[in-house]
Each structure stands twice: as C-alpha cells, then as structure tokens.
Amino acid sequence: MRVLVVSNLYPPHVLGGYEILCGQVVERLRGRGHEVHVLTSDHGGGGGNDGVERALLLETPFDRPAERSRRRRREVARRNAAAAGAAICRFDPDRVFVWSQLRLSLGAAAAAEASGRPVAYTLNDEHLAGYAPVAPGLRPRRLAGWALDRLALRGLTLASLRLRHVTCISDALRRSLVTRGVPVRDARVIHQGIPIERFPPRLERGSSPGPLRLLYTGQLHEYKGVHTLLEAAELVAHRRGAQALRLTIVGYGPEAYVERLVRLAVRSRVPTAFTGRRPHGELPELYRGHDAFVFPSIWDEPFGLTHLEAMASGTPVVSTTRGGPGEFLEHGANALVFDAGDAGDLASRIEALLDRPELRSRLGRAGRETVERRFSLDRYVGDLERFLEEAA
After folding, report:
1. Which end of the chain is less packed: N or C, by CB atoms within 10 Å?
2. Which domain holds residue 23?
3. N- to C-terminal Cα separation, the chain
C-alpha cells in the first residue's frame, strides 16, 4: 500500500505517547513493505525529511491555551486543505490514514475525503468532539454560533467528514465520543500496543531492602490525579514513617498545579523527586528502577500506554480503571486498582506492596505476560494493516 499519514504532530516534536506511537507505526508499516509518507504540522520547526512533510498549520501553538476562533479555524482549514491536496497529488496514495487533528482543523481530512481516496481514521482521544457544531440556545450569541456552524461554516465542523472507516483505541473512548455527538457508533476497537523489546523486564523484585520506590510518569494536570498519590503517601508516612517510601514524579504541567504538588510533598515528608519531563528513551530504566508504577488519574483515560510500558518492564501497576485502562487491568491478577480520587484506598494498595514482596513479584510477572500476550506493537500494527486494507 501507499499510505499518506496525516497527524498534527510527529516525532521528534511530540506532546506524549500517542505521537511517539504514530512514529513507531509508520516505521513498522515501512518495514512490512508499504510506502508511507507523513504530512504533519510545522510545530517545532524543521523541514521535511525521510518521507515527512511539515506543511500543515495549527490553529493555536501547543505552548499556548487553545482558542476557538472561527476566523482562524477557517483560514487554517483552507490552507491545510490546499497542503493536503498538494501532498495527495504528489504522493498519489491509495490510502489516507488520519491520526490526531487536535488544533489542526479538519481541512486536511476533508481534502482527503474529497480526493476520492479511501480514508481511515484512528481516534486516540476525544479531540474530534471539539469540532462538533455548537448546540442551539436561547441567548443571541449561542443562537448565532449555532447558525454559523450549521449553515455558513458547516465545512469547519464534523459535518464536513463522512467518518466511514474509523477505529478507536478503546471501547470506553468510542462510547464517550458517541455521547458527545461524534458519529462513530460503528467504529472498530483496536487496542494499542508497545515495542516490548524496548522494555526488558526486571522480574525478580522480592524483598529489596530500603523504602518502596514509587513512580509516576505523565502530564501534571489536575485531572491526572497526581495529588491523590501525594495525599496517599502522606497517609502511609503517618502510619509507617516517611522513610518507608520514595516517590519519583516525571512530567510537566501548569505551574500552579506543580507548586501544589510540591507543597503536598513537603507536607508528607516523603522524599519526592520532581524530575520534569524526561526523554522517552529514559523510561525503560526508570520503570525497572522502581518497585511500582502508580497512575492515579481521575478522568476517563482513552487508553494507557504508560501502564503497558511499566507492565512490560515487570513493574507492578497500581492504577485507577476509569476509561481504557479498565479494559486490561484486573485487580489482584495483573495490577492493583483503586477508586479514583480516594487517597485512603490508594494508601491501602501501597501498604499491600510494602507488606507483601511476593505480591510485587507476582504482579510484575503477570503484567509482563499480559503485554506479551495482548499488547505488542507487532500485533497492533498487524491489526492496523488489515484495517487499512479494508478501507478500500
């Protein structure tokens, strides 16, 4: 196949795991003999190379808060449609594979559909809901917005896309999108996978001396619930002493929230390292160097790549199960789960790991087996390959 991949970001310019995964999928598809060209935004600068064309525009740079300006969205959509049309003419793909369009406008995807080429979508989050038309309301401004989205600016909304061939990364995401008005009720669910070979396990954890080392890696936003981890650490410290734990917090986010986390860490007296954002290549060593990975998210996560990376590394996972992680985490079998936002519940799971070294070893082995059996990158790319073939 000749595949044109359209994405808002592409390595080395990324926000998180999904853009990194896009790059991995592209390389695996090329390794399977397919010709793949990438069309992405100019975010981060740098010209195109190795089949990557950085010609699309963002509505708002990712280092600034998102803005909903119909004028800006219309201009970006027009220019991105032209760039996508030109790329389709040059590369002549027999499939167009659309990834995230967050802040990209729908112009490129609409141009792909207008070209008559088979178009397939993978939805990794709820970004498409942001392109739903404004709901009608009684206030003049709301009514005017509804009229613009439904009539004059219809091409800037989901009405401009047919969305006939769609996959979602979890059933939880698919259901959430449908609830928010995105017409993907018949979308296929294809769970993501990771390159297992990059995360060699440290399986025998046993009763290592010293404190229990806990790791969080991800974005530092309130909805990620990292404050719950620090509140739970304080509870454990009160009962077991502050030296029973060590925390490592990897990631970045709004300054006000990070300052709140630092205050919680100081109050708990548990030694806590805030490392900031780390290169993805350092994560395997971080996972293996800790006794458990804690993911305390309080919102419905689309999926859970960091969970899979920790599990592949043989590191026990302690997590909430809202959203996609609930589709592969089983309490007591391959992870420990707790109620979102409940610091006391999380503290009890941490103490179980403190008291039962054999539990850490068993969960580490079970997590690795889960990823090997169900969530390899090769399995994921194979599923996507068949999905693309069926797009014709």
Report:
1. C
2. 2-193+376-390
3. 11
